[in-house]
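Dear H.,

Thanks for agreeing to be a second pair of eyes. The structure we're designing against is below in token form, covering all 50 positions.
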């Protein structure tokens, strides 16, 4: 997840005061979709630009 956040910038979780990351439902949906694309062999770079 960290690579997808930094490399592809597809999600931007908020941070709490204790530095924990908070993901929205949309973030989780996006990550789940990217995982499925990855399993199909689709390029992550290609998908993150959509």
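And this is the sequence the design step returned. I haven't edited it by hand at all.
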């Amino acid at each position: 997840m960290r690579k997808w956040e930094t490399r592809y910038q597809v999600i931007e979780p908020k941070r709490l005061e204790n530095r924990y990351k908070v993901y929205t439902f949309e973030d989780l949906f996006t990550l789940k979709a990217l995982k499925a694309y990855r399993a199909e062999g689709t390029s992550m770079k290609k998908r993150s630009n959509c």
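Two observations from my side: The CA atoms of residues 10 and 34 lie 9 Å apart. The first strand starts at residue 14 and ends at 15.

Warmly,
E.
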